[in-house]
C-alpha cells in the first residue's frame, strides 16, 4: 500500500470508530443507554471498561441482527472467526497491515457475535463454550505468530514472541483459576483489549508504529499475567492456619 493510501485508510479507520463513539457518548449522557455493571476487579480493572463494552455492542447491533436473520449458529460463527484469523495472520506476515487491521477487527466482531447468539437464542452449550475458547486461543496464536514471522531476524521478533506467550499465559491463568473454583477477577488485558490495540497499531500501516504497539502489548500482558497469578495464588491460600495433629512417638504408635 502506498503512503497516501495508508493515510486514507488510517483516517477512515479512526473516523469509523470515533464518530459513532461520540454519538454513543451523547446517548449515554442523555440517559438513553444504561451501562453494564462493572465486574469484580480482584486482579486489576479492565483497560476498556463498561462504557467501551456498551459501545461495542451498540456498534455491532446491525451485525447481530444480520446473523439472527440468516439463522447462523454460534459454532458456525466461531469457525468463521478462525478463517478470518488465518487470513489476518497471512496479511500480517506479508506486511499488508491495513488489510490485517480490518481482518483483526472482523475476527473480534465475530467473536462477539457468537457469544451474543448463544445468549439471546438459548444456544449456549458446554461444547460450544469449549469450542469458542479453543478457537480463540488458536486465533491469538495465528495473529501474533504472523507478527513473529513478519519481524523475523529483528529484535521486534522477540517482543512479538513475548506477546504470544504472555497472551496464552493470561488466558490460561483465567481458565485454570476457574477450574480451581476461583472466580471474580478481571485484569487489565482481556482478549478484546489485545485485539483492539493490535488492530489500532496495524491500521497505521507502519512497521515502526506496529512494533511500538507490540511493545505496549508485551508490557500490559506481562502486568496482567503477573497480577492474575499473584491474585489467584492469594485466593487459593488457606485463610487460617491448618492445625495438624502431632504424631505420637514411634514406640507408642499402634502397630509399631
Question: How does this structure look, described?
Answer:
By secondary structure, the chain is mainly α. The protein is 71% helix and 0% strand. The protein has nine helices and no strands. Helix 4 packs antiparallel against helix 5 and helix 6 runs antiparallel to helix 7. The N and C termini lie far apart (83 Å). The relative contact order is 0.12. The C terminus is likely disordered.
The name of the CATH architecture of the largest domain is: Up-down Bundle
Helix content: over 70%
Number of domains: 2
Can you count the beta strands?
0
Give the termini distance in whole angstroms. 83 Å
Instruction: Characterize the largest beta sheet: strand count, sense, and whether it forms a barrel.
Output: none
What structural class do the secondary elements suggest? mainly alpha
CATH homologous superfamily of the largest domain? CDP-alcohol phosphotransferase transmembrane (TM) domain
Mean pLDDT rating: 87
Strand content: under 5%
Using the alpha-carbon principal axes, give the shape. Answer: globular
Low-confidence stretches: 251-256
Radius of gyration, CA atoms, in whole angstroms: 22 Å
CATH topology of the largest domain: Four Helix Bundle (Hemerythrin (Met), subunit A)
CATH class of the largest domain: Mainly Alpha
H/E element order: HHHHHHHHH
**Separate helix tally:** 9
Amino acid at each position: 500500500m502506498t503512503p497516501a493510501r495508508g493515510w486514507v485508510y488510517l483516517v477512515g479507520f479512526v473516523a469509523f470508530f470515533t464518530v459513532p463513539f461520540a454519538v454513543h457518548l451523547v446517548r449515554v449522557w442523555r440517559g438513553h443507554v444504561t451501562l453494564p455493571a462493572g465486574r469484580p476487579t480482584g486482579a486489576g480493572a479492565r483497560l476498556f471498561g463498561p462504557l467501551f463494552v456498551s459501545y461495542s455492542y451498540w456498534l455491532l447491533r446491525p451485525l447481530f441482527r444480520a446473523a439472527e436473520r440468516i439463522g447462523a449458529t454460534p459454532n458456525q460463527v466461531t469457525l468463521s472467526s478462525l478463517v478470518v484469523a488465518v487470513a489476518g495472520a497471512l496479511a500480517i506476515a506479508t506486511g499488508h497491515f491495513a488489510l490485517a487491521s480490518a481482518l483483526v477487527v472482523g475476527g473480534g466482531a465475530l467473536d462477539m457475535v457468537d457469544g451474543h447468539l448463544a445468549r439471546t437464542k438459548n444456544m449456549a452449550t458446554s461444547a460450544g463454550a469449549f469450542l469458542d475458547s479453543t478457537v480463540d486461543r488458536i486465533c491469538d496464536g495465528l495473529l501474533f505468530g504472523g507478527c513473529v514471522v513478519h519481524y523475523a531476524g529483528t529484535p521486534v521478533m522477540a517482543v512479538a514472541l513475548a506477546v504470544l506467550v504472555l497472551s496464552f499465559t493470561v488466558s490460561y491463568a483465567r481458565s485454570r483459576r476457574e477450574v480451581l473454583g476461583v472466580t471474580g477477577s478481571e485484569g487489565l488485558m482481556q482478549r478484546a483489549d489485545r485485539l483492539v490495540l493490535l488492530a489500532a497499531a496495524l491500521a497505521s500501516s507502519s512497521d515502526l508504529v506496529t512494533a511500538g504497539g507490540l511493545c505496549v502489548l508485551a508490557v500490559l500482558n506481562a502486568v496482567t499475567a503477573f497480577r492474575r497469578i499473584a491474585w489467584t495464588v492469594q485466593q487459593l491460600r488457606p485463610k487460617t492456619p491448618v492445625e495438624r495433629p502431632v504424631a505420637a512417638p514411634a514406640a507408642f504408635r499402634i502397630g509399631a
